[in-house]
């Protein structure tokens, strides 16, 4: 079909079509903006309603807790916490001597025997006062070296208090086989297996 319209009319029709399309786009944009505005308004109203609801719930819960004597409950919880701390403190100082003596005997050098153990308490935790007898001075010093060895897993340190050797008995006393006496002050290692508190359930 041959279009016999003059050029001015053709341009007018083309611009009219373009205007129609632009009008449709503008209308779609306006509808979109109105939709976004509606969604935002709905969200804002819902948020404020939720805040008001939560505020009322908090207020009601506060009244309920006040009515149920919250201060008294806190005092009871504190008492229980204090009692538990006391139990932990006591258990932390309970020594499992059956395991401890077995391990210490294994670390004693040949020619030395344990004679006494005394539980001590320091600011750093539980410890032991240790007394042993030895055949000579060298063996007595080796007792301290062995017990202080971290590889044994017993003590974090074992300080030598004193060593005394009796050279005047000439074999006449009851302790003639072990004339030397060594006294140590030892501090338990943090993760040793000889305190009740460090035991793990099987």
Characterization of this structure:
The chain contains four helices and four strands. About 2% of the residues have low confidence. It is elongated and about 140 Å long. It has a domain of 107 residues: General secretion pathway protein M, EpsM (Gyrase A, domain 2). It is 53% helix and 20% strand. By secondary structure, the protein is α+β, with helices and mostly antiparallel strands.
Topology of helices and strands:
Layout: H1 7-67, H2 70-92, H3 97-107, E1 112-122, E2 125-134, H4 137-148, E3 155-165, E4 180-188
CATH topology of one domain: Gyrase A, domain 2
Percent helix range: 40-55%
Question: What is the number of strand segments?
Answer: 4
Q: Unreliable runs, pLDDT <50, ≥5 residues?
A: 169-173
Number of helices in the DSSP assignment: 4
Strand residue percentage = 15-25%
Biggest sheet record:
4 strands, antiparallel
Classified by CATH, the class of one domain is Alpha Beta
What do the pLDDT scores average to? 76
Structure class? alpha+beta
Q: What is the quaternary state of this protein?
A: single chain
What topology, given as strand order, has the largest sheet?
1-2-4-3
CATH homologous superfamily of one domain, by name?
General secretion pathway protein M, EpsM
The global form is: elongated
User: Span between N and C termini?
Assistant: 98 Å
- CA radius of gyration is 44 Å
């Amino acid at each position: 079909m041959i279009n016999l319209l003059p050029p001015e009319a053709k341009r007018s029709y083309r611009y009219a079509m373009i205007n129609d399309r632009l009008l449709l786009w503008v209308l779609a944009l306006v509808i979109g903006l109105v939709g976004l505005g509606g969604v935002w308004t709905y969200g804002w109203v819902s948020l404020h309603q939720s805040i008001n609801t939560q505020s009322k719930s908090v207020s009601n819960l506060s009244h309920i807790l006040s009515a149920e004597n919250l201060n008294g409950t806190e005092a009871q919880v504190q008492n229980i916490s204090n009692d538990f701390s006391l139990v932990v403190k006591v258990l932390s100082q309970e020594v499992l001597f059956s395991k401890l003596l077995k391990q210490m005997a294994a670390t004693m050098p040949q020619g030395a025997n344990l004679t006494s153990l005394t539980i001590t308490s320091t600011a750093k935790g539980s410890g032991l006062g240790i007394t042993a007898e030895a055949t000579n001075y060298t063996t007595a010093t080796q007792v301290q070296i062995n017990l202080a060895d971290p590889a044994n897993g017993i003590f974090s340190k074992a300080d030598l208090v004193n060593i005394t050797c009796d050279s005047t008995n000439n074999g006449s006393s009851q302790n003639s086989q072990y004339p030397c006496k060594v006294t140590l002050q030892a501090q338990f290692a943090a993760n040793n297996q000889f305190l009740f508190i460090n035991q793990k359930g099987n």
